[in-house]
Amino acid sequence: MKKFFVILLCAVFCLSLAACAQNTEETVRQPERKEAAENTKPSQDAAAPTPAPTPTPMPVLKSGMQNEAVRQLQQRLGELGYLDIEEYTEKFGPATERAVRLFQRQNGLSEDGIAGEETLARIYADDAKECALPLAGIRIGLDPGHQKQGNSEQEAAAPGSAVTKNKVTSGTAGKNTGTPEYQVNLAVALKLRALLEENGAEVVMTHETADVDISNQERARIMNDAGVDLALRLHCDGVDDASVRGAMMLVPAGEYTKEIETQSRAAGEEIFAAYLEATDARGRGVIARDDQTGFNWSTVPVCNIEMGCLSNGEEEALLISEEYQEKCAQGLLTGILRCFE
């Protein structure tokens, strides 16, 4: 019996030892599981992925705007040779618009003078095309029609002709404002000269002020002596019917102008088409004339644009406005450029 109790006590002691060992193992395992669980939790300190920035669209720069982007545009156009001004400003004016147009023309873009996304991308590209002046080596003659005071003295209308005409007249005047034609003609001619020179042309003008006395014969001789590649005479029309409006192009014809007729007409048609596109003026046609002193004495290709009717009140308002005169000059420039492509 005593032996039985000894065996029983040994068994109880062994079971107690086993239970303690199991509890100890479980205690050790719990921290391990806790640590593993903590390691599988997402880190609170890990940075969240940064979203991709939304691309900022390029600005559209156009006439009348004023900001730093315009100054940067001017500087870039200057670097490429499209803009030559004394100081870069923040104002998008006529010179900047002309430079943008020139860039667009030389780079096969739509020519609107507005620096939109496509134009700006090309301007700022590393391989942007530098300016190649399209009229370099070309000599253009401009004769703004009429002058402040007419001269009724007579001169031969053509070489060897017995027919005579007034040396020069003062032209027509605006229906409502009385603005003299010579003022409009000269204003557009001076604007056109600036455009031509920006495109590399050498420009010969019969006069730069209205206070002159130069006959139509003399005007033709100025162009002949200068050897211009093309002479353009600038006029406005005046008709008895005040409802008539629109532009027309006069080109030489007849026995005195046979050698220059073909070239003159081709140039006249090209310039007239571009002029109508730029101004939206009504076209009254390309008309051949054999009675103009300025044509008959010319030995170089010549044409005469009648920019519109000052005798029509609505068209007069356009012709005397700065904005429309800019359009006239731009259209004439575009036509001349096409002539020498």
From TrEMBL:
Signal sequence segment: 1-21
EC number: 3.5.1.28
Pfam family, one: Amidase_3
GO MF terms held by the record: N-acetylmuramoyl-L-alanine amidase activity
GO BP annotations listed: peptidoglycan catabolic process
Top-level division of the source organism's lineage: Bacteria
The keyword Cytoplasm belongs to this UniProt entry's keyword annotation: no
Biased composition (Polar residues): 163-178
Sorted UniProt keywords: Hydrolase, Signal
GO cellular component, one term: outer membrane-bounded periplasmic space
Segments of this protein annotated with the region Disordered: 25-62, 144-178
Cross-referenced SUPFAM superfamilies: PGBD-like, Zn-dependent exopeptidases
Domain MurNAc-LAA: 220-337
Enzyme class at the top of the EC tree: hydrolase
Biased composition (Basic and acidic residues): 26-38
Positions in coiled-coil regions: none
PANTHER family linked to this entry: N-ACETYLMURAMOYL-L-ALANINE AMIDASE, N-ACETYLMURAMOYL-L-ALANINE AMIDASE AMIC
Protein name: N-acetylmuramoyl-L-alanine amidase
